[in-house]
Amino acid sequence: MSAEATLTSKGQLTIPKDVRDMLALKPGDTIAWTVIDDHLVGTPRNLAFGDLAGFLGDPPGGPASLEEIDKAVRDAVASHVFGEEAAGQGDAA
């Protein structure tokens, strides 16, 4: 799907109705904007965290502990910020 919107003098865009309908956007929803290779990408943030429960199925090793989740988040941030060589170091990041 392709659509266009015109930027107003106040820096506002109106998302075309067919796009809003397709993405189930409603007033008050948040859209995260990212620039990738000089392209503007808008990602709707209209899902509640609870809506994602079970989305990926059951974890292969069973439910994770808070400590395991914390370590996974630290590793992901370290990998993103410092590069792949920092992944897995957890406490070092």
Largest sheet: spatial strand order: 1-2
The major beta sheet can be summarized as: 2 strands, antiparallel
Low-confidence stretches: none
Give the class from helix and strand content and strand pairing.
alpha+beta
Mean pLDDT: 81
The CATH topology of the largest domain turns out to be Pemi-like Protein 1, Chain: D
Helix-strand string: HEEH
**Fraction of residues in helix:** 10-25%
Query: CA-to-CA gap between the ends?
Result: 41 Å
Query: Which oligomeric state applies?
Result: single chain
Topology, number of strands? 2
Total discrete domains: 2
Radius of gyration over C-alpha positions, nearest whole angstrom? 19 Å
CATH A-level architecture of the largest domain: Ribbon
Tally of helical runs: 2
Task: Please characterize this protein's 3D structure.
The structure is a single chain. The chain has 93 residues and is an alpha+beta fold. It folds into two domains: 1-48, Pemi-like Protein 1, Chain: D, CATH 2.10.260; 58-93, no CATH class. 25% of the residues lie in helices and 13% in strands. It contains two helices and two strands. The chain has a two-stranded antiparallel sheet with strand order 1-2. A hairpin with a 2-residue loop joins strand 1 (31-36) and strand 2 (39-44). The longest helix has 17 residues, at 66-82. The chain is extended. The N and C termini lie far apart (41 Å). InterPro entries: SpoVT-AbrB_dom, SpoVT-AbrB_sf.
